[in-house]
Amino acid sequence: MPPPSHRHELYTVAQVRALDRRAIEVLGVLGFELMRRAAWAALSSLRRHWPQARRIAVHCGPGNNGGDGFLLATLAREAGLHVDVLALGEASSGDAGAARQAWRDAGGSVRLWQIGDALPEADVHVDALYGTGLRRAPEPPVAALIEAINASGVPVLALDVPSGLDADTGHVPGAAIRAAVTASFIAAKRGLHTGRAAAFVGALELDALGLPESLWQGEPPDAQLLTATQLPPRARDAHKGTNGHVLAIGGEHGMGGAIRLCGEAALRAGAGLVSVATRTEHIFAMNAARPELMAHGVDGPQALEPLLARASVLALGPGLGQSAWSHALWLTALDSGKPLVLDADGLNLLAREPRRFTQPAVLTPHPGEAARLLGGTVADVEADRCAAARLLAGRYDAVVVLKGSGSLIADPDGRLDVCPWGNPGMATGGMGDLLTGVIAALLAQGCDAWQAAYLGTGLHARAGDRAARQGERGLLASDLLAPLRALGNGLDDD
């Protein structure tokens, strides 16, 4: 297991390779010894997850990941398992070559993979095809093997990284192993926690291979996983004025629900006062359903200005639209200089009229909005979400929450955090409106932009996981409001 202080640290592939070299060159741990430790860690993981397994098939590539596989095969055979080994080539080099020879010396045989071959009968497949070095789609013969393994119906243990998954970005450019468990070594790879990784990694385990704390000294991580952080308790003499006043602006014709969700989330996240500036047609329904929201019909900038004067933080964009009314409110709100959270059509208008923010600002784009803000495509954003989040933060001088699986929080100085919570049930309308309200409420209660984004993203995702206990399919955004309140008060029974 990794030292406790490093369990939430995420590293790039280049950084992990530097750690490998340091272990060998500075700490004096031989490369073959690291490979042997990785094989032991992987075998331990296999026995924990599949204690009844009697037959395994190990699929070995040409590099060190394949070397891990050959040594795992040797150890598993010594432990009494029936082991079949398939390899991509006739030879391996360096430490991987020594590992391959160790398997042969132990009496093992190697079968070369050919397209059209049947897979051996197995209770578990072990993926040791490619490690962290693969950045492109696997070649057709390897892709055929990957697809055959995925189609076998047999669970897969991936060594270090599921083959075909980019360990830096979470991008999947071609065929990739869908693992039930991934046993990763030495340091956590950034790309295993965002993008499409969740669909391929399965249960993720990390083993530091017994390396000492000194290994990580002088190698700061590229990113961090969010940790579950509790908000401080309210002062006993608190009143509504001490907890901030959020003004939620949006709700064009037919989109009143978005701004209501945003406002209600701000209330549930602890804002002392929440006003809503919206189309007059939404006022009756909003007052009837949630009278705690101070709803105002505004027909233009003049009606908005007195509301701006009373607010401490703005939540701008849910249901805003892109009409002349929308644009006028958007421009007036931005020019007020108030701290704000910008989402939805607030971001789409920003893409049309870019500006750098001088006030505290949090932008919360999904990949489509991020692509418009960057002048690229969704594919560009998803190919390297970490780079996209950092580029957005620098371009607009704001904290950015790039939403999606493994949501990212970035600031203009390059800091990057990754959210480990959330679930597919949250891929439904209104979830982003809630997040906007939560972050705005935290800004109103005294958090700076980074703190509000960090805490708000975590609270929102954890509330989604709580709400999904009754099932992911059919999850509604409003289902998060009760667990959001509980988590904000430290009432976490996880």
From TrEMBL:
Homotetramer. It catalyses: (6S)-NADPHX + ADP = AMP + phosphate + NADPH + H(+); (6S)-NADHX + ADP = AMP + phosphate + NADH + H(+); (6R)-NADHX = (6S)-NADHX; (6R)-NADPHX = (6S)-NADPHX. Residues 16-217 form the YjeF N-terminal domain. It comes from Rhodanobacter humi. HAMAP family: NADHX_dehydratase, NADHX_epimerase. PROSITE patterns: YJEF_C_3, YJEF_N. It comes from the Bacteria. Signal peptide: none annotated. This is Bifunctional NAD(P)H-hydrate repair enzyme. AMP binds at residues 403-407, 432. (6S)-NADPHX binds at residues 64-68, 131-137, 160, 258, 319, 366, 433. Binds 1 potassium ion per subunit. Belongs to the NnrD/CARKD family. In the C-terminal section; belongs to the NnrD/CARKD family. Its EC number is 4.2.1.136, 5.1.99.6. The keyword ATP-binding applies. Keywords: ATP-binding, Isomerase, Lyase, Metal-binding, Multifunctional enzyme, NAD, NADP, Nucleotide-binding, Potassium. Residues 223-491 form the YjeF C-terminal domain. InterPro entries: CARKD (IPR000631), Nnr (IPR030677), Ribokinase-like (IPR029056), YjeF_N_dom (IPR004443), YjeF_N_dom_sf (IPR036652). It holds the Pfam family Carb_kinase. Its cofactor is Mg(2+); K(+). K(+) binds at residues 65, 127, 163. Bifunctional enzyme that catalyzes the epimerization of the S- and R-forms of NAD(P)HX and the dehydration of the S-form of NAD(P)HX at the expense of ADP, which is converted to AMP. This allows the repair of both epimers of NAD(P)HX, a damaged form of NAD(P)H that is a result of enzymatic or heat-dependent hydration. Catalyzes the dehydration of the S-form of NAD(P)HX at the expense of ADP, which is converted to AMP. Together with NAD(P)HX epimerase, which catalyzes the epimerization of the S- and R-forms, the enzyme allows the repair of both epimers of NAD(P)HX, a damaged form of NAD(P)H that is a result of enzymatic or heat-dependent hydration.
